[in-house]
């Protein structure tokens, strides 16, 4: 009996961080080891592992870390369990642990949509007492497309067999140019085509050996061309991987890589974009960061002298630098890590001083929106408690910035539609989607704050949040509208949705989550047909899955899981004593396609020293192209109208936006 009592009291020791912080932690071991709940010093029955199910994380930290994957069953029914059995752990200062060359913890960055999904799933599971997050489809399925290669010896001649004929190679290049040319300008057509002709019409083996880096560049272009045009026969292989692996195996070592600077910058940028597209985001960030450092060593971030280098070289360097800038902002926001470049260090011109083409204008606006997105991320997604009045007052800076960008989009589209019979160019489409992404990312904390307050009120009686939500209604409305417009743009039949590049997938997934939260919070006040737009989101993801995108398949499963959680939330909200969140006016009554929110937005102009003539603001007074712009949710007038609606914030209730535990 004594031995039995001693055995029942035995538990694993809590880690030092847990004992010092007095935080609960949970660790689920393999199926033969029971679950240990440190805060209760008790064991829960072990759960049998189903080897056929997708791997999910074992140790989850709502604040910072998630443990690496291990098999765990999915829920067969909606079973509510004790809150402490959800596996939630509040570790906030633990290092990343390494074990057998595999990560056992992963940091959940604040701004990453992936980590937002994980945090949201954890919070919902804990508050609703559901047997998840370990049943979530794939918390750490970051090896969707396993891709490995071995570096080829420097003295081995490159393999030039198995390449497409020159006509096919040039066709693949044209395809890559079509898909990347509007947003990513790291292909110099004249030199590339010239080298291709020399390669095919001369001695291919000699050309590849003497111009090894160019041959790597050529193979990367072929890999992208194949990825855009065809599906892999093996679903576990990413499209175009045959040429990509060959290219990466031939890449020189870092000590010699930087010597052919412009070419290697383009090579590293292409490699990073490919890896990002197959969901190897961390590796992608490393390659892009290396490209940025080499570009800085060559002074691409400065204003280079045209009289010395020539206008063509300076233009190529300028376009290449701003392409890296866009990639850095997007990749860093996706991963939730600091930017590799600081605006105060950049002095190169944003626009060509002599001649600015429509393509240059599109690139410049994309740079400005990327800058705005990074500014929103660095100011909104932080853990400090923010008074509501201060929050809304500082939002006005962002609204003015978006109004300026809306005016610039109006000007570009107005000029385009006057000289063309098409509806929306690929460049304009991408800018519009990025514009709405800024709105969604900026208004997301408002929805999260309302959701958190509603979840916290469960079990404590009805709580009227109307006074808190009323001043936020115009801003939240614009977030809903931007999510709707995003899905509408992506659902257009001739929109040429991207299947390989991940950006359309990210836009669709983020918009779908936004509408899912909005529908759960405002079931009778949204004013938009959320089920229809949810079907649009699933149709977009289904189409990508049908065309062989394995990343879209994972996102679809995660979206379904979140929709299940919010269905549970709606059921709880309908129970007696729980009052649904209802603002005084429906969010859909506000003007479409605008608004953002930010906790502490600095003057965006002061963030850069790009020169006085290239402010990140656009203040031109350009007439609206009303019908088209309304169809895509762009209106500078609506932004300014929202600013007027916000008015004086002195009379606001003394509410606090407190998302500290969520972002930490």
TrEMBL record:
Residues 578-597 are annotated as: Disordered. Its main location: nucleus. Keywords: DNA-binding, Nucleus, Transcription, Transcription regulation. One of its GO terms (molecular function) is zinc ion binding. One of its GO terms (biological process) is positive regulation of transcription by RNA polymerase II. InterPro entries: Stress_Response_Reg (IPR051711), XnlR_reg_dom (IPR007219). It comes from the Eukaryota. One of its GO terms (cellular component) is nucleus. Residues 284-357 form the Xylanolytic transcriptional activator regulatory domain. It is found in: Nucleus. Pfam families: Fungal_trans. This is Xylanolytic transcriptional activator regulatory domain-containing protein. The lineage of its organism: Eukaryota, Fungi, Dikarya, Ascomycota, Pezizomycotina.
């Amino acid at each position: 009996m004594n031995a039995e009592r001693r055995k029942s009291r035995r538990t694993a020791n809590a880690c030092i961080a847990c004992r010092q912080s007095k935080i609960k932690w949970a660790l689920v071991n393999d199926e033969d080891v029971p679950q240990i709940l440190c805060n209760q010093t008790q064991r829960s029955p072990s759960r049998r592992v189903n080897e056929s199910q997708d791997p999910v994380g074992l140790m989850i930290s709502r604040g910072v870390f998630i443990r690496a994957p291990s098999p765990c069953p999915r829920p067969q029914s909606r079973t509510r369990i004790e809150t402490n059995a959800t596996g939630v752990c509040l570790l906030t200062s633990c290092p990343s642990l390494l074990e057998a060359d595999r990560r056992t913890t992963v940091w959940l960055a604040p701004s990453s949509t992936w980590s937002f999904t994980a945090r949201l799933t954890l919070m919902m599971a804990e508050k609703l007492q559901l047997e998840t997050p370990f049943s979530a489809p794939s918390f750490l399925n970051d090896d969707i497309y396993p891709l490995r290669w071995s570096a080829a010896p420097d003295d081995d001649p490159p393999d030039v067999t198995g390449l497409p004929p020159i006509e096919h190679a040039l066709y693949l290049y044209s395809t890559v140019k079509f898909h990347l040319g509007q947003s990513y300008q790291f292909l110099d057509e004249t030199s590339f085509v010239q080298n291709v002709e020399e390669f095919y019409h001369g001695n291919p083996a000699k050309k590849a050996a003497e111009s090894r880096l160019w041959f790597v560049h050529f193979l990367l272009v072929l890999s992208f061309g194949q990825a855009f045009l065809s599906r892999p026969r093996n679903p576990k292989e990413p499209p175009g991987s045959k040429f990509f692996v060959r290219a990466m195996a031939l890449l020189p070592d870092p000590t010699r890589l930087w010597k052919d600077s412009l070419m290697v910058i383009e090579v590293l940028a292409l490699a990073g974009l490919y890896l990002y597209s197959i969901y190897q985001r961390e590796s992608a960030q490393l390659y892009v960061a290396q490209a940025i450092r080499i570009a800085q060593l060559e002074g691409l971030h400065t204003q280079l002298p045209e009289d010395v280098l020539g206008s063509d070289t300076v233009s190529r360097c300028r376009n290449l630098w701003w392409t890296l800038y866009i990639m850095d902002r997007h990749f860093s926001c996706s991963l939730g890590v600091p930017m590799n470049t600081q605006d105060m260090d950049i002095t190169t011109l944003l626009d060509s001083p002599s001649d600015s083409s429509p393509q240059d204008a599109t690139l410049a606006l994309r740079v400005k929106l990327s800058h705005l997105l990074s500014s929103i991320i660095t100011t909104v997604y932080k853990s400090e408690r923010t008074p509501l009045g201060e929050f809304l007052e500082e939002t006005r800076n962002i609204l003015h910035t978006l109004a300026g960008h809306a005016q610039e989009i109006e000007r570009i589209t107005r000029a385009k539609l006057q000289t063309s019979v098409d509806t929306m160019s690929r460049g304009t489409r991408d800018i519009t989607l990025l514009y709405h992404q800024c709105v969604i990312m900026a208004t997301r904390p408002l929805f999260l704050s309302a959701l958190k307050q509603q979840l916290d009120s469960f079990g404590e009686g009805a709580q009227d949040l109307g006074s808190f939500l009323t001043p936020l209604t115009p801003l939240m409305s614009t977030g809903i509208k931007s999510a709707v417009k995003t899905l509408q743009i992506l659902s257009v039949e001739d929109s040429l949705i991207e299947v390989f590049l991940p950006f359309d997938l990210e836009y669709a997934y983020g918009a779908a989550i936004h509408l899912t939260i909005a529908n759960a919070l405002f079931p009778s006040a949204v004013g938009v047909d959320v089920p229809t737009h949810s079907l649009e989101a699933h149709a977009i993801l289904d189409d990508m899955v049908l065309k062989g995108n394995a990343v879209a398949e994972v996102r679809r499963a995660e979206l379904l899981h979140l929709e299940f959680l919010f269905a549970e939330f709606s059921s709880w909200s309908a129970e007696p004593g729980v009052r649904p969140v209802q603002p005084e006016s429906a969010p859909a009554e506000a003007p479409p396609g605008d608004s953002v929110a930010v906790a502490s937005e600095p003057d965006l102009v002061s963030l850069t020293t790009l020169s006085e003539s290239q402010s990140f603001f656009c203040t031109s007074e350009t007439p609206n192209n009303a019908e088209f712009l309304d169809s895509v949710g762009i209106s500078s007038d609506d932004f300014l109208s929202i600013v007027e609606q916000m008015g004086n914030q002195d009379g606001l209730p003394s509410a606090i936006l407190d998302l500290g535990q969520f972002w930490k």
